[in-house]
Write a structure and sequence with these properties.
Residues 6-24 have low confidence and may be disordered. The chain has 16 helices and twelve strands. The protein is α/β, with parallel strands linked by helices. The chain is elongated and about 80 Å long. Helix 2 runs antiparallel to helix 3 (63-88) and helix 3 runs antiparallel to helix 5. The protein has helices at 30-52, 55-61, 63-88, 93-99, 101-134, 138-148, 152-169, 171-176, 179-186, 188-203, 205-208, 211-243, 356-365, 388-397, 425-432, 447-459, and strands at residues 4-6, 246-254, 257-263, 277-282, 292-295, 305-310, 328-334, 347-352, 373-379, 401-406, 440-445, 467-471. It folds into three domains: 4-21 and 338-471, 3-Layer(aba) Sandwich (Rossmann fold); 53-232; 244-334, Beta Barrel (Elongation Factor Tu (Ef-tu), domain 3), CATH 2.40.30.10. The strands form three sheets. A six-stranded mixed β-sheet has the order 1-10-9-8-11-12, with helices on both faces. Residues 1-22 are annotated as: Disordered. One of its GO terms (molecular function) is metal ion binding. Residues 13-22 have a biased composition (Pro residues). The chain crosses the membrane at residues 30-53, 73-92, 113-133, 153-173, 185-203, 215-235.
Length: 474
């Protein structure tokens, strides 16, 4: 197998500004374990509260009472997981640093589906239990509960909002929606949580049956609401006000590819690392309220920030028309594709398409020596290779080996282009980077390509602790 290895002898553009080395932000490993234990303990607490309020006794008694008791338990689990789901995506810095947003998004989705089906089970079991006790028709009993029980109309509206969120979270449905539409619909989850609260506090025995229950549920709701208000609203507003980011200039990088340079105040105090991303809102018209996740494509240096956007439709197309002086609002930084655990030595960066942007910013920050860094850049054609001047600079000034793999995708799931698909994925990676097994490896690209590249790296002997990825999916 052959690939294009590029070592330039010229520097077509000035060297990028030297990076400001960030303060160490090494995340203790036990943070992740503590978060998982906390979620499990919360389920144990609500189960213990159910037992304390006679749940096991009613279950052992059989009949309609047992069905109702089981319905109460599924409702408690559903409510607890729903609030855990809110906390997972509340953008809490400690949680973000421990797990990374792509992992949190996956857990958020799994937790949401589990909570949803437990909620459906709660509705069905409570209805059947109450109908059995009253010797009534189940549908008539459900309608009677909705009409007459305190807070049930609001809870029904909240349930419908959560159904909408779940349906639009199914992968097939997400593919049919624009990112902006999906994001707006997803906010209905907060509405669903809020509308369920009156029903739980007015009629839920397991919520208000004892001082311990009341204290637990009010505390969990307060922590969840406080996290959202603080980290989804307050902190972004504070950083946007403090740093006053504005567009400095806009530069085309290639077909459908645009870089936006931003200046602001006290950028050296912004706690961002190379490889991370922000949610961006540009105050350039009616679409300002729609945020988009864009990675930094240059190492933050305390003077300028740069993002590079590919025209994929929706809001990304309008980035090319941004004017100097346009204000930008930010949420973040987010993401765990950083060099916080990289101590130096061999490093390999595997990029596909627009996935090269966070890896380009990492090239400016990672403390590798000459000849220790390899960038493998996958693109469909030479015309789609961006940042040629900067890649030349990294090749000549820092000894980065740049390998370009060009061509259409393979017919099989692979990180290789079609012309090289006859080679094994791990074998090809070892051929390109013989010392891959002792390297730190950073991977960024579309989901399917990233998974294939991850599998190739693991097959080539890269330990899991040295394999760093960031996924694009939403």
């Amino acid at each position: 197998m052959t690939a294009t290895t590029h070592r330039s002898t010229a520097s077509p553009r000035p060297a990028p500004p030297g990076p400001v080395r960030p303060r160490p932000l090494v995340t203790p490993r036990w943070w992740g374990d503590l978060g998982g234990v906390g979620a499990g303990v919360s389920l144990l607490i609500v189960t213990a509260l159910w037992v304390a309020h006679g749940g096991v006794r009613e279950l052992a008694g059989g009949g309609a009472g047992a069905v109702s008791a089981l319905g109460r338990l599924t409702g408690l689990w559903a409510s607890d997981l729903l609030l855990v789901q809110v906390l997972l995506m509340a953008r809490i810095p400690l949680v973000e640093r421990a797990f990374g947003q792509d992992r949190l998004a996956r857990w958020h989705r799994w937790t949401g589906f589990a909570s949803f089906w437990l909620m459906i089970g709660h509705i069905v079991l409570i209805t059947l239990g109450y109908a059995g006790a009253a010797h009534a028709d189940a549908f008539a009993e459900l309608w009677d509960m909705i009409r007459t029980y305190p807070g049930m109309l609001l809870a029904t509206a909240g349930t419908l909002a959560l159904v909408l969120v779940v349906v639009t979270s199914i992968r097939a449905a997400r593919r049919r929606l624009r990112y902006e539409s999906w994001h707006l619909l997803h906010l209905y989850a907060y509405l669903g949580v809020g509308l369920a609260l009156p029903h739980q506090l007015w009629t839920g025995t397991d919520f208000i049956g004892s001082p311990a229950s009341t204290a637990y549920w009010w505390s969990l709701y307060a922590v969840s609401a406080g996290a959202v208000l603080t980290y989804r609203l307050g902190l972004p507003a504070w950083r946007s006000w403090r740093h006053r980011l504005v567009v400095s200039h806009v530069t085309p990088e290639g077909p459908g590819l645009t870089s936006v340079y931003l200046t602001g105040r006290r950028l050296g105090e912004l706690p961002v690392r190379a490889g991370q991303f922000f949610q961006w809102r540009f105050l350039d018209g009616p679409s300002w309220s729609r945020s988009h996740p864009y990675s930094l494509s240059a190492t933050p240096n305390g003077q300028l920030l740069r993002i590079t956007v590919k025209d994929l439709g929706d809001g990304s197309a309008r980035v090319a028309s941004l004017r100097p002086g346009t204000r930008a609002l930010i949420e973040g930084p987010y993401g765990k594709l950083t060099g916080e655990t990289y101590p130096g030595g061999p490093v390999v960066l595997l990029a596909c398409g627009i996935g090269v942007t966070p890896l380009l910013s990492l090239l400016g920050e990672l403390p590798y020596g000459p000849g220790e860094a390899t960038l493998v850049y996958r693109a469909r054609s030479a015309a789609e290779v961006a940042f040629r001047g900067e890649l030349d600079w990294f090749a000549t000034q820092r000894g980065v080996r740049v390998v370009r793999l060009l061509g259409p995708r393979a017919a099989r799931p692979s990180w290789l282009p079609g012309q090289f698909a006859g080679h094994g994925d791990a074998e090809a990676l070892r051929g390109i980077v013989p010392d891959i097994a002792r390297s730190h490896v950073f991977v960024c690209g579309p989901d399917s390509w990233t998974e294939a590249a991850r599998a190739a790296a693991r097959g080539a002997g890269v330990p899991a602790g040295r394999l760093h990825t960031e996924l694009f999916s939403w």
